[in-house]
Amino acid sequence: MNASSDMSFFTLIMGASLPVQLVMLILISTSLFSWWYIFIKVATIKRAERDAEDFENTFWTGGDLNKLYDGIAASRRKPQGMASIFEAGFKECARHKQQGRMEVSDVMEGARRAMRAAYNREMDELDAHLPFLASVGSVSPYIGLFGTVWGIMNAFRGLSNVAQATLSQVAPGIAEALVATAIGLFAAIPAVIAYNRFASSVDRLSVRYESFMEEFTNILQRKS
Amino acid sequence: MLRQRENPDSFKAGALSISVHVVLLGALLISFNWKTTHPVSIANVELWDSLPAVTVQKPLIIPEPIEQPLVQPKPVVKEVVKPEPVIEPEPKALVDIVIKKKSVEKPVEKEKPKEVKKPDALAELQKKLVQDELQKPQKQPSNDALKKLQQESLSEDKAEGDQKNLAAKAAANTGVTGEFTNKIKAKIRGNVNKTLCGDGNPELKFEIGLLPTGQLSGNPKLVKSSGNAACDDAVERAIMASEPLPVPTDTSLFSQFRNLKLTFRPND
């Protein structure tokens, strides 16, 4: 319905100069990717939170830790989140005990280091793609602005050849150019919102993991 | 690019992200009215421009039909004079009436030349006749007839004027502007030192801005040179020297003289 009119969205994009079109292409693909990552992060963080909830429930019901460990090790999928931290710490502790005649503090140190390593791996997984969202949020408005400035430069350059300058000679060029800023903002706003939201979610998860590590260390120390 | 544990979500997330873009693009296309409406054609503006000329042209057209009513008042005046001696019941009013008779007769005779200049004279005549009516009720029938005749002639004036206006406007406008342009040219031509323009027939165009007083609003601008700088200068000096230039006193006509393009052929 809009294709017939001279100011439709598509003619605005098609009529823009090549650099502006490139800028629009970059921004649209950036926006697609950032939205893709946003949906992926939503799913993974939700799953990590659910896993942490489930694991804390089973852990604090006071069942046998050996059983719990066997269950985790036997499961088909690789342990994730708190389960992987628990698995790393328990395995390390069991190995030290098998070797025997070890100081309790050394055993605890070893288990703690193993859990720290597992925690770091988990945090790396959780933090994935967040830097991409952050840079999309901060940079894409500038890219859009660059496209707009370029387009407006062209519009005014065309104006310089005309004796009587009217608004109708500049307006289409500026409208074309402003599409670039619009796309840039469209890419940036969701990315910034998503980044802030995911960063806070990851922070809360990391606090949860760390407190679990401390508590599990205490339990291991009591048992050994 | 993707972590191992993110693989199960990747297709779903990709589909969702594309659908978000499609939805937003659709919202953008629907919510905005991308069609541009162009303003109404410029021909209307020309009509507005010519409207003020209607008031200007009226005095030019009206004089023609006025000749008809002029013929008819004459018998009325004669009739008025005759019955007066018959109707003299009041002894005191005698002197007054005689004086008024003269005053009535005089304006009607004098008004012949006046009416040609001003349509207002008709109204004046009407007023006087109405006054006479009040003083001399005997004249009513003849006066009524006179009024009717005047009103008819006036309405005829309007109808004829309206018809003629459209045709006359354009012709008269161009005629008046052409006349003044020729006057301006003639005045400037008298001041040009033709010897500076050589033997050929150079043609040059100047654009001048005029004030309502006939003064130049700025320096004349050379639009098309004759190729001879001395000749151009001579014409420019001539334009400056011929201030004030003749311009129409009518302000509505003057708008065409605010920026005037003049073509000169000094050796013509």
In summary, what is this structure?
With 224 residues, chain A is mostly helical. Chain A is built from seven helices and no strands. A three-stranded antiparallel β-sheet of chain B has the order 2-1-3, with helices on one face.
Provide structural commentary.
Chain A has helices spanning 9-15, 18-60, 65-74, 82-99, 104-127, 130-159, 167-223. The N and C termini of chain A lie far apart (76 Å). The model of chain A is unreliable at 1-5 (pLDDT under 50). Chain A has one domain (14-223). The radius of gyration of chain A is 28 Å and the shape is rod-shaped. Chain A has seven helices and no strands. The longest helix of chain A is centred in the last third of the chain and has 57 residues, at 167-223. Chain A has 224 residues and is mostly helical. Helix content of chain A is 84%, strand content 0%. In chain A, helix 5 (104-127) runs antiparallel to helix 7 and helix 6 packs antiparallel against helix 7 (167-223). With 268 residues, chain B is mainly alpha-helical. Chain B has two domains: 54-163; 179-264, Fusion Protein Consisting Of Minor Coat Protein, Glycine Rich Linker, Tola, And A His Tag, Chain: A, Domain 2 (2-Layer Sandwich), CATH 3.30.1150.10. Chain B has a three-stranded antiparallel beta sheet, with helices on one face. At the A-B interface, helix 2 of A face helix 1 of B.
Key phrases:
heterodimer; A: 7 helices; B: 268 residues; Fusion Protein Consisting Of Minor Coat Protein, Glycine Rich Linker, Tola, And A His Tag, Chain: A, Domain 2
Count up the helices of chain A: 7
Mean pLDDT of chain B: 69
Helix content of chain B: 55-70%
Largest sheet of chain A: none
Unreliable segments of chain A (pLDDT under 50, ≥5 consecutive)? Answer: 1-5
Structural class of chain B: mainly alpha
- Tally of helical runs of chain B: 10
With strands numbered from the N-terminus, the spatial order across the biggest sheet of chain B is: 2-1-3
Distance, first to last CA of chain A: 76 Å
Unreliable segments of chain B (pLDDT under 50, ≥5 consecutive)?
76-80, 107-112
Strand proportion of chain A, as a percent range, falls in under 5%
Which two chains have the most extensive interface, and how many residues on each?
Answer: A-B, 22 and 21 residues
Q: How many domain units of chain A?
A: 1
Written as H for each helix and E for each strand, in order along the chain, the element string of chain B is HHHHHHHHEEHHE
| Bulk shape of chain B | flat
Let me know the average pLDDT of chain A.
Answer: 87
Say what oligomer this is.
heterodimer
Overall structural class of chain A, as computed from helix and strand content, comes to mainly alpha
β content of chain B, as a range?
Answer: 5-15%
CA-atom Rg of chain A in angstroms: 28 Å
